[in-house]
């Protein structure tokens, strides 16, 4: 699926471009030795340079040789598209990385829709290219001149951000990446789609459950209206996307949202973040099942869910690792400074129930329920053996406490409030299941 050629040129130039397209390195090198000016030639109609042709067809060796012979990787075709834009359009990740290494400008706009390479990667759903471009934006002059957050939310000629394009084109992986990198979930369009549309409006228009799920989990507003006065629920209804409409119905329970305190924890270990995101998506999946109960609609599993853990997968030796808050889940998250451990669900409940200070309107920093120290870094919990966890009597005490589910009169206020929060977060499924069974207890807002 490379760039088609249309060059009414003499045979030698036609052969040269055909060789570039096919990746014939020897022929291209020989042609350039005999006729060095050939590297400056373009096709007649689209004004494609050899760099454009090599990049769009994924011919990395030819592209590398051409880049070694030119100091300018940002040649423009008829529509002012750069080789980087075409490589991102066609998902040629190796060529994208090579062009970025060669200093290709990531903030050039085409003349078709005023889009950048980031728009192209999001529109066509090439998440690897999207990641590469975003990573490059952290260390290029763009980060210094524009700022990374502004680049992630750059708008095209019709006011569409990369997030808008990814949602409209049903690209949930790209939606997730962009939201994780700071895309504004409630940004509105200008002339793209219906003016004033958010990414949630566009996902509802296309009936993409996975995109709707991602946007809701990152705090998309279900009652935000476009310029026609429509909320996403109405958009989904009018397009006959009944399952999407059911989830977007403002009268149904609010989904759990990625807790704002976790967004500001200074160092959230990537692996720990995946565990927390999985727990949140599984909780919302149970809510979705409850909403669609009794209907003919079925939902695909969340894109970032690893599924549940069977009871047989948890041995008796792991009883010493059970979360001391819910006594149901195995500890998977550890507070780095103090070393205390919790399950992902209880960590989410702890952060979801951190309410803003009424005098300052600032969300308090989450604190460890065991020692009341501030949580500055969360990591994946280290597995403990029986010897590390203490004598067998300690394990038997944990089992007994798990069966009783009674925190006792001597429990601290922090444990009591957190256990209440876990209850409202939703009853856990079977032991070690990693799921929340009763979505009716899920709080409306985090």
From TrEMBL:
Residues 382-446 are annotated as: Disordered. It catalyses: S-ubiquitinyl-[E2 ubiquitin-conjugating enzyme]-L-cysteine + [acceptor protein]-L-lysine = [E2 ubiquitin-conjugating enzyme]-L-cysteine + N(6)-ubiquitinyl-[acceptor protein]-L-lysine. PROSITE patterns: ANK_REP_REGION, ANK_REPEAT, ZF_RING_2. Residues 323-372 form the RING-type domain. The keyword Metal-binding applies. Residues 409-422 have a biased composition (Polar residues). InterPro entries: Ankyrin_rpt, Ankyrin_rpt-contain_sf, RING_XB3-like, Znf_RING, Znf_RING/FYVE/PHD. It comes from the Eukaryota. Pathway: Protein modification; protein ubiquitination. Keywords: ANK repeat, Metal-binding, Repeat, Transferase, Ubl conjugation pathway, Zinc, Zinc-finger. It is an enzyme of class 2 (transferase). It holds the Pfam family RING_XB3-XBAT31. GO terms for molecular function: ubiquitin protein ligase activity; zinc ion binding. Its EC number is 2.3.2.27. SMART domains: ANK. PANTHER family: ANKYRIN REPEAT AND PROTEIN KINASE DOMAIN-CONTAINING PROTEIN, ANKYRIN REPEAT-CONTAINING PROTEIN-RELATED. This is RING-type E3 ubiquitin transferase. It comes from Iris pallida (Sweet iris).
